[in-house]
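Please check the following for our workbook:

***
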Amino acid sequence: MLTGFSSPARAGASLGLKLLVVLAVFIFASSAFAEPEGKKPVNPELKSIMDKVQNYYVEAGDFSADFEQIYISKMTRREKKSTGKVHFSKPSKMRWEYEQPQKTALITDGKKAWYALYDKKEVKTYEKFKSSYVERSMAFFWGSGDLSADYGLRLLKAKRVEDLIDAGSREVIEAIPHQRNAQFEILYLFVDAKTGRIEEVLWFDTIGNSNNLKFNKPQTGRKFQDAFFTFQLPSKEWTVEKLEF
């Protein structure tokens, strides 16, 4: 994995794949909301909201959105803001572009992944993304899997979450991974109660740093060319590093 980044934009991009594992469950996976045989049934109210989220993204098709990310360091309490655009194409393509404060991009066509650092003219490639442990953990992304097998889920009935975000009229889903990992310890999804659209995400890593991600100006029914989810070197000055997860 990518580690040791000096800015929240880069740190956020490195966290992007792990975060999108969870988001992809809600956005792409039809089977993630089924109640597996022999397992404890999902809370009916929770299942109803999850079904609404699923239906929204099924009807949305391929889509894009602007995003704003606010990173807060637990140690310094300083806030750092990043902005950009994210694009999804079913069943397995995504393009996560940070525009400010540094231009970076995290791109996958479902088989290979690229992490581009425009200011350094560097790109890190993951040739075996399709067979990597990240890809295997994203079984939901390819349309299989059981969300409750990996995450403890519950509806959070709170007007304000972690003293950071007002829930307002939105539904809040709390997700805690059963297996501890360094990427996030707890995650909250803020869902429009009427449409099922995920408007905002808040997550904490294991040392207490927080990331708040807001999605704005969604565009649904997009039509992307396959080439949009690949990366071509802008010039011969760029360097390429091949990495493995």
